[in-house]
Design brief:
It comes from Sphingomonas aliaeris. By secondary structure, the protein is mainly alpha-helical. The chain folds into two domains: about 1-30; about 35-89. It contains three helices and no strands. It is elongated.
């Protein structure tokens, strides 16, 4: 019985570990991927959001010009959206 422990340990290393690794590699390869259509939709949504942000900034400038006491919202850094563009290219 004492001789059985090292055999089980060696078997778990050489059989169990590769089985677990191959199992998760298979699951990873079966995971859904982003399609070209999805990527195009994301690009279109990003473009739309940039246009909407520009429109909002224009409206805020007009309101600020008409009412000096009005404070515009705190805009996010453009660096966040620029990071997206740099990752895409």
């Amino acid at each position: 019985m004492e001789d059985l422990a090292p055999i089980i340990a060696i078997a778990s290393i050489f059989i169990g570990m590769p089985w677990i690794i191959l199992h998760y590699i298979t699951k990873w390869k079966q995971a859904p991927k982003i399609t070209q259509e999805d990527e195009g939709l994301l690009d279109e949504l990003y473009s739309l959001s940039r246009r909407l942000e520009d429109r909002l900034n224009t409206v805020e400038r007009i309101v600020a010009a008409d009412n000096p006491d009005w404070k515009p919202r705190q805009s996010h850094d453009r660096n966040q959206s620029d990071d997206y563009l740099s990752r895409r290219n």
